[in-house]
Amino acid sequence: MSPTSLSSTGPGTHPRFPVAIDATAMNAIEPRGSDLGILRLITCGSVDDGKSTLIGRLLLDTKQLRRDTLEAIDRTSKARGLASMDLALITDGLRAEREQGITIDVAYRSFSTPRRRFILGDTPGHVQYTRNMATAASTADAAIILVDVRQGVVEQTRRHACLAVLLGVRHLIVCVNKMDLVGFDRSAFARTCDDFRAYAAAFDPDGFGSLSSRAETTFIPISALLGDHVVVGSSHMPWHAEGGGRTLLAHLESLPDHVGEEGGRTRLPVQYVIRPQTSEHHDYRGYAGQLASGVLRVGDRVLAMPSGLRSRITRMHVGQESIDTALAPQSIAIELADDLDISRGDLLVPEDPSGSGVPAHPPRVTSTIDATLVWMASSPLTTGRRLLLKHTSRTLAGVVVKLGHRLDLQSLQRVADPGSLGLNEIGQVSLRLGQEIACDPYRVCRATGAFILIDEQTNNTVAAGMIL
Amino acid sequence: MGSVHVQNPDTSIAPLPHLAALEAESLHIIREVAAEFERPALLFSGGKDSIVMVHLACKAFAPGRVPFPLLHVDTGHNFPEVIAYRDEMVRRLGLRLEVASVEDAIRRGIVHEEQTACGATPSRNLAQIPTLLEAIREHRFDALFGGARRDEEKARAKERIFSFRNAMGQWDPRNQRPELWNIYNARIRRSTIAGDEGEHIRVFPISNWTEIDVWEYIEAERIPVPGIYYSHEREIVIRAGRICPVSSFFPARASEKTESRRVRFRTVGDMTCTAGVDTPAQSPRDIIADIIASPISERGARLDDTFSEAAMEDRKKEGYF
Fold this sequence. Notes:
By secondary structure, chain A is an alpha+beta fold. In chain A, 19% of the residues lie in helices and 31% in strands. Chain A has 3 domains: 6-254, Rossmann fold, CATH 3.40.50.300; 268-350, Translation factors (Elongation Factor Tu (Ef-tu), domain 3); 364-467, Translation factors (Elongation Factor Tu (Ef-tu), domain 3, Beta Barrel), CATH 2.40.30.10. In chain A, 50% of the residues are buried. Chain B has 2 domains: 18-223 and 310-318, Rossmann fold (3-Layer(aba) Sandwich), CATH 3.40.50.620; 227-301, no CATH class. Chain B has helices spanning 18-36, 48-61, 80-93, 102-107, 128-139, 154-157, 211-220, 284-293, 311-318; strands at 40-43, 70-74, 97-101, 143-145, 162-165, 200-203, 232-239, 242-245, 259-265, 276-277. The radius of gyration of chain B is 20 Å and the shape is globular. At the A-B interface, helix 3, strand 2, helix 5, strand 9 and strand 18 of A face helix 1, helix 2 and helix 6 of B.
C-alpha cells in the first residue's frame, strides 16, 4: 500500500489536490448535466498494483469525499505513522481487511460527474478470490485492469481479462500504472500494450472467440499515486493526449450504453402477477417484471415461453403511470388482451412481425444446457450432483450430467476431463433440468443466459453459470 | 403526478436516466421479495430512505396494495412530526403498520437503557437491536426491507442486496453469499412456530442509491416528507458544537441556554442522537444544494457513529439495520 505524497508536486506538474484538508476545494461536487444513465464498472488488480490507490484517486479527484471522511482517513494514516494520507484507506472496508491490509470481498461505490453516474465494484485480485471478481464482473459494463508497468502483463492480468470477458464485460480498460516509477517512459507503456494485445488476440477461453473479438480494449498510462491521466491530464506524458488518448475518467464518461445490443432480442421474465381483486380493479391482471433486454410497445404481439401462449399488449405501467414504450432495464407491469395462464417464471418475447406466430429472435427452449460455471463452494463439484438452478425468475432442479474441460486459471490452458471442479475453478458442464427453460446464450443476452446454482442442503449459492 | 419516466419517442437510443434505472432495480428487488418470501415486512423509521422505499413498494404492486406490512422499531425518542407523518402516510396509502416499542422492551427488561459517554441522555440505537429481533421472532418475518445505502458507510459498501442473517439475527461479513447479476438467492431455514428462531434475509432495495439520488427522486416523484427535513423554528441547545433539539428526553442542562432557531435535520430517528443543521433549505432542491456544499457526510450528523471507525460494522454484526 503506497502512501501518497501529494504535497511533493514539483515544478512543471499539473495542480493537484493538496494533502491538507481544504474544505472549500472538496465541497464542489458538481451538479449533474445531461443524464447518460449509470455505468457499472469493476476494478481488477491487487493492492500491489495500486488498485485501492487508484480508486481513492478517482474518488478524491472527482471530489466525492467530504471533509469528515478525509479527516478520518488522515487520522488513520497518521496513527499508522504515515507521513501523508493513504488513498487506499478510502475504500478498504471491513475491519478484518483493514487488519490484514488486503481487500477480501466486493465493495460497491457510487460516484458521479456532471456527465455520468458510476457504480464501481471493487474486487480482490488474487486467484483465491476469483468468485468475488466474478460476482462484481457479472453486472459490469466495463473493467479496469490494472497493470504495474514495471511488471508488465503478468499471469494475474491475463486471468482478470479472461474472467471479465467470460462474465460478459464489453469494455476492458488496461491502466498501465506506476508510470512515475519508470520516468514516464513511453516505450515501457507501449511494450505492455503490445503484450496485452497479443494475448487478447490469441486467447479464446471457451471456443467462442478470442478476448479481443468479444471486448473492446483501451490502454491508458497512469500514475494513480500522482493522479496522471486518472481524472486530470498529465504533463509528464503529453504523447498520450497527442495520440488521441484520454484520461481514465474521460474514457469512462464516453463509453457507449449497451441497451438494445443483445442481438435485437427483447425479453421480459414474468416476476410477479399483480391481481388486486378489488371492486375498482376487478379484472386487472398485470404481469410485472424487469425488461431484461430490448423494447416493448403497447400493441406488440407477444408469446409466453416456454408454453407458446400468444396475446397482445394492451397497456403498460410503471406504478400508476401509463407508458407506451418500455425500455430495458425498466421494471414494468403489462396487461394482455387475453386471459392466459401466465405466471412467474414465464418469459415474454415479442412475436415476429410477419404474423407467423413465432417469436422474433426465438429463445432456446430446452431442458439440457451447456454452460460455463464458476464454482464457489469449498466442496468440489462432481458429475451426478443435484442442485437447484435459478434462472431469471424461475427456480428448478438440475443434475450435472457431464463435466467438460476446466480452464486452468494459472496457465490459462483448457484441461480435459478434470474429474471435479474446485472452489474458484471455472469449467464447462452439461446440466439436465427438471423442466424446460427459455434461455439465450450468455454472450448474446446476459439476463437470459445467466443462472446461479444453489445447494439445497446449505441454501448457499455455490456457482455462477453462463449458458453457452 | 411527477415522474422519473420521461417519455421519449426515440427510446431505443436514449439510455435510461439514472434515477429511472435505480428505480427499476429497486422495483425488481421488491417484487422478488414478495414473490419468494412468505412473511416479509418493511422496516420503516419515518426517515427519507424508508419513505422512498414505501413509495417504491406502492409502485411495485400498483394498482394492487403493498402485500406486506411496515415495521416501525419505535425508540420512543421520536420527533412528534415524524409520528404524525407516519400515521397520516399509513392511512393515505392504505398500508398495514406494526410497531415494536423499545420503551416497552425496556419496561419488560428485554433490553436495558444504555449508558453513554456523550451525556446524560442515552441514545436508544443499540436498544433497537433486541427489540427488532424480538419482533422478527414474534411475527415470524422471513425478510425485512431496510433503507440502507452503500454510500453511507464503508461496512455498508460490502453488504449484499439480499443479506443473510442467521437464527440469532447476525450478519457474518466474512461469509456472505455470492450475489451475481440480479438473481437473488432467497432460500433460508424458516421458523415453524411463532417465537422460534428462524433465519431471515435483510433486503436493501436502495443499496445503490446515494443521498443525492434519494432527494432527486423525492423531488421528481413529489413525495411528501416530514417537515423536520426542511428549515423550521425549533428550541435547541448547542452541545459539543452541535445543534441539539431540546425535548423531554433531551432536556437542556442547567448550564446550557436554550434558544429558538431555524434549523433542519438530515436524518431522523432517535431524537437524542440527531444533530441539526443551520441552513434555510425549504425544498428537495435546496437540500441537494446543501448536501453538495456540506463538508460533512450524512452519517457525520449522527452522534453515535463518530465513536469508533468500526462502530457500524460491530452493530451490523449484532443485527442492526
